[in-house]
Sequence to fold (118 residues):
Amino acid sequence: MKPIFLCYKRCSTCRAAMKYLDNNNIAYEYRDIMTENPNANELRKWISESRLPIKRFFNTHGVVYREMNLKDKIDDMTDDEAIELLSTDGRLIKRPLLISNEGVFVGFHEELYESLIP
Fold:
């Protein structure tokens, strides 16, 4: 399976991750997180596979996160409520998001992407 790379081209971290993937000849399926936001079923599967807390999937530095005061609300949400909320707006999701056979990568960390180099 070719990894799915969800990002926003105007995001500098996403551009750095894309450059890393391209420079290391790592093939991927590009998906714009703003126009093709993951649905709840995808997010549920990816969160489960990642073994990370749901909170790690939130873009805590984003405008929408701050406008919604999620810092004060997220701990009181059920997993299903948090997943449903994430599925409503790509700006709520920490990016980039890379889904591959090697794992689910949230954000860009070069040392983690190394496992993808052919």
Remarks:
- The radius of gyration is 14 Å.
- The helical segments are 12-23, 40-50, 63-67, 70-73, 79-86, 110-113.
- DSSP finds six helices and four strands in the chain.
